[in-house]
Amino acid sequence: MSQSHTTIPTNNFNGKKRSAFQRFLGVIEWLGNLLPHPVTLFALFAVGIVVLSGIASFFGLSAIDPRPEGTPGRAVNGIIEVVSLLNGEGLRMIVTSLVSNFTGFAPLGTVLVAIIGVSIAEHSGLLSAAIRALVMNASKNTVTAIVVFAGILSNTAAELGYVVLIPLAAMVFHSLGRHPIAGLAAAFAGVSGGYSANLLLGTIDPLLSGITEASAQMIAPGYTVGPEANWYFMVVSTFLITGLGSWVTIKFVEPNLGQYNPKEAGVDLSQDKVSTLTTVEKRGLKMAGLAVLAICLLFALSVVPQWGVLRHPETGAVAGSPFLTGIVSLILVFFAIPGVVYGKVVGSIKNDRDVIDCMGKSMSTMGTAIHCPGFLCCTIRCLF
Question: Where in the chain does DSSP place strands (E)?
Fold first, then answer.
């Protein structure tokens, strides 16, 4: 998030007086630019928890434990008492429990497994080519919605939307005679505003479900939450955000920007050309699409028939079946195989070393996603 704005924007658009809604958006922009880096936020939250633990312990605050008797970790008297982290005992607890708390962070393993498959699809070029094909084939009437929609889908690979789609959308809008900043804004709205929505399960879903499961098991130790638990909400959110993002762009953003004047902007995109898909890339997408169909067929055969091997071995039901409990492994396969197929066709993957390199490239992007909530989780777990 940019830190360049330090005052509330007061300029007019197109020489017109700003409406109340536009001034409200200006305040939101100003407040958003005041926020520090997410890592800093989580560090502040962790420090705040330490301070609050000392205050709550000093006043003797407690709560009734809602977990049933006999649950591991439940006190004999059924009372949850705050453990102060501001004294010597609390400091010793933090130091000795930090590693075990972090390695016991619920989403750590599942999200790393999922990212392996997505890394192959991303760094082979498959996801980038798919996004480009989706946006560049859009008509002038539908390009706004397609850009926002593609931005939402791009969260499957963490930085893909920011690196590829946002500049691409600006060039696409310019090529259609529309203001490139409007395209940039529409893409940014889709990428950032729709980050947790999607039609497919991605790496963020195991992360969120792991945190939810760990919280739920404080009350019901055997309770499980799969990465697919939020899927219906994600799908509906995808179309809702696409509609809202397109409406705001067309109704408010683009009219306020006015006619694009490259001389005033200091940037001329007239010489920039949208990178069209090559014949090899198109062939790679077709082969990857066939691989996706084959994988979906195998998944269907393993779960739809009553004899499906991924149904529950005892009840034969889908609920609680290996298909749902092991869906992170299926996410890996769903992205990895088409990624390898695409890479072999276009030449970005030539041997097993290239596949392994793809696996490792996205691990560094997961540092913030794991360490930020992990840092806060470590501090919280020390309280109980």
Answer: 62-64, 79-81
Number of residues assigned to the chain:
384
Which residues in the chain come in under a pLDDT of 70? 1-18, 106-107, 158-159, 261-275, 362-384
Q: How far apart are CA 210 and CA 203, in angstroms?
A: 11
Q: List Cβ neighbours of 111 (8 Å cut-off, separation of 6 or more).
A: 203, 206, 207, 210, 366, 369, 370
Q: Concatenated DSSP letters for 326-354?
A: THHHHHHHHHHHHHHHHHHHHTS--SHHH
- Is the CA virtual torsion 176, 182, 185, 186 positive or negative? negative
Tokens (6 digits) for 127 = 């996801």
pTM: 0.70
State how far the Cα of 357 lies from the Cα of 341, in Å rounded to an integer. 16
Other beta carbons less than 10 A from residue 174's beta carbon? 21
pLDDT on residue 381:
53
